[in-house]
Amino acid sequence: MMTSKEIRESFKSFFASKEHKIVPSAPMVIKGDPTLMFTNAGMNQFKDVILGNAPIKYARVADSQKCLRVSGKHNDLEEVGHDTYHHTMFEMLGNWSFGDYFKKEAIEWAWEYLTEVLALDKNRLYVTVFEGSPSEGLSRDDEAAAYWEKYLPVDRIINGNKKDNFWEMGDTGPCGPCSEIHIDLRSDEERAKVDGLTLVNQSDPQVVEIWNLVFMQYNRKADKSLDPLPAKVIDTGMGFERLCMAVQGKTSNYDTDVFQTIIKALGALANTTYGDDTKKDIAMRVIADHVRTIAFSITDGQLPSNAKAGYVIRRILRRAVRYGYTFLDQHKSFMYKLLPALIETMGDAYPELIQQQTLIEKVMKEEEESFLRTLETGIKLLDKQIADAKAKGLTVLSGIEAFTLYDTYGFPLDLTELILKENGMSVDEAGFKAEMQKQKDRARNAAAVETEDWVTLKDGDPEFVGYDLTECETEILRYRKVKQKNSEFYQIVLSRTPFYAEMGGQVGDSGWLATDDETIEISDTKRENNLAVHLSNKLPQDLTATFIARINLKNRTATECNHTATHLLHEGLREILGSHVEQKGSYVSPSVLRFDFSHFQKLTDKEIREVERYVTGKIRENIIREEMRHVPIAEAKEMGAMALFGEKYGEDVRVIRFGDSVELCGGTHISSTGRIGSFRIINESSIAAGIRRIEAITAEACEDYFYAQQDILTEVKSLFNNTPNLTQALRKFFEENAEMKKTVEEYVKEKTVQIKDALIKKKQVINGIDFYVLNGPFPGEVVKDIAFQIKGQFAENTAFVGATEYEGKPLLTVMLSDDLVKDHGLNASQLVRDAAKHIQGGGGGQPHFATAGGKNTEGLTKALNEIMEKIK
Prior knowledge:
Blueprint: H1 4-17, E1 21-22, H2 47-51, E2 60-68, E3 89-98, H3 103-117, E4 125-130, H4 142-148, E5 157-160, H5 162-165, E6 166-168, E7 173-184, H6 188-193, E8 207-220, E9 226-239, H7 240-247, H8 257-270, H9 278-299, H10 308-327, H11 339-346, H12 352-355, H13 357-391, E10 396-397, H14 399-409, H15 413-422, E11 426-427, H16 429-447, E12 449-451, E13 455-456, E14 463-464, E15 471-474, E16 476-484, E17 487-494, E18 496-497, E19 511-514, E20 519-522, E21 524-528, E22 531-536, E23 547-551, H17 553-577, E24 583-588, E25 593-598, H18 605-620, E26 626-632, H19 633-638, E27 652-658, E28 661-664, E29 679-688, E30 691-698, H20 699-719, H21 726-761, E31 764-766, E32 769-777, H22 780-793, E33 798-806, E34 809-816, H23 818-822, H24 828-835, E35 842-845, E36 849-853, H25 860-871
Parallel strand pairs: 1-2, 4-5, 10-11, 14-18, 32-33
Antiparallel strand pairs: 2-3, 3-9, 4-7, 6-7, 7-8, 8-9, 12-16, 13-16, 15-23, 16-17, 17-22, 19-20, 19-23, 21-22, 24-25, 25-30, 26-27, 27-28, 29-30, 31-32, 33-34, 34-36, 35-36
Helix pairs in contact: 3-4, 8-9, 8-11, 9-10, 9-13, 10-13, 13-14, 14-16, 17-18, 21-22
């Protein structure tokens, strides 16, 4: 039986023999493409070639691409683990032709690889072809069907509808019919009972699609019409995990060696065996799948966070932790311990897992521990909601409360239902789904972008001249209107441009497009599908004119100072902290630079000062920039340039050198370090386990910072009569202040005791309960102190009720002895919440102690009376 490693290599070897260039997998996390957060198909890295925005370097290409599908159109997350063949992270084997071969060869080679190289049973294979769409003038794909008839009986060539058999890149762009290959993995007995023909595309877990051959031959326009593509494209994708299932004779992807090593390691951790318990099996599949996704995301530079792609990764990690917590009794961090098993399975094909192992483990462990704390908080909140509901005689938790648990604390609905069931309650599932739909609608509306078709004025390929020029003559090649969030703007593509398009952490240039008669502002320059698009709120009156494209030189220069400073900073950090420091992200704008790097502890003040001195030393050396374009990447690495994890490099790269600092970089840089002038670190913090962030400023921003600090110092000195020794004056001031504070605290303490003693003398006894009631103007801290003193002195049948005000604001305070809570069923939190309506406020707390604030002091008497009445 072939192993997964052998299957992967056999695919690459087969297509290499068919004159395909075997290329490495692109990063799973996408940078520089606003339309995608993750690589969700093998074709993503060739998108620019397919759209005509990049030249065709190789007409035939094949690879094994790591992909992630959890959001948007391809949302498989909630299905993962519950069936045997859906995944978040998966590998896609694929072969491509850009204007070379087409349907005949794609079908012929797919059949040859499956039936001759892998020796899959021909009698278990079915294919689908596009049945056509008369409304769009598209006929059945008889061409593909005719090629398939050479290998399969006609009855195993199935017509498929547009949903299954017409592939589209998006609402607009390249598209075309596709042909899917399905395999029937059922036993001979089952196949004899039910014809596999009836189960194709019917979600049967044993009759599954393994390969999709896409024949891109049309371009979908914004008005939904179709034009023929000038160069036809073959784009195929085969799920590696499903293929392994078929080749290894399994009936589940999770039974293959791709997952079994991880599942067995998890079983040892959780003291359970896969296959013994259905719910535990689901949990083990979820975790085995998700640990791969999280590890590969971190190696590609995407850390868990609360925004965009980082939030998706955090959700996946938390989903795995929840399943481990609920079904495998894993109440401490555990997933990071599975990394050696993952490396054993995939480390050979993806060595970045081995190189980044320490970082992955640290990030995972910290994220797990953080979420487990959140989970505990959520459980306490749910316990309180259950208690409150029962106190009101309710047996159903509202959908809004269940959704808050899901959205804020990561509670899935099934975990909430499980805990509620244990307490004899249920949840308003319809209400929960309604809240979920509202959130999806909000997200969809916020992200909605409407683009019109490109209007082409001239043919040609855009040329970037911004490394050498800050302005140049240019013409408009094409433009289109974009509508987003109730605003309209235009994207403009120029024949030649000095404008740097946002990429690699460096913001895009702004500037102007001018003629003798008119000047329009370019607000930003973005990169979309490797195309530099200039953003403007309006179009020139004469679109066919020759323009001067001129960047905002002041902003560009400030950005270049900051960008060069990040290179010097990177070098300085490695020199001072050690060679373990690696760049994990950066942001460079005219006003600030941000640099993320691997390091496992907070920098000391001394280390920060040493780094600053190192960078400013390099600035004073006035090192001249050395720029080398089109350097073979192997040669660049020999020069000392480091390739960053998660970045996709071509065969030729650009190298920037400032002395000993050598980096692969496509950004713009200052001509010599001396022009940076000055450098200062303004903040250092942690953004994830093992990842630190430095924020710094240079040049004019640095001068402004120094002046602001000097102004503050001058102002503080003036408060101390411009004393020559400010430090000594401040020390004396704080010492005197501490003495005064101590005197005041002793006075307040003495007065508090007096107030408490007076309250005790005025004690009211009602129905056997001792009431201590406080009215008047008192600070909240004093009221709380008195309440706890009384409870400490009188442990039974005691109720303290405060209806006080301070600085015009009302305050309700309730303290109950433990026996009143336990034996009488009283709840201080509920009492103040109910009474707070009289003071136009709200509050809460614990069953034995709670407070509520408000706006209306005149309602204090009514609030006090209500609380007293309920306690009686």
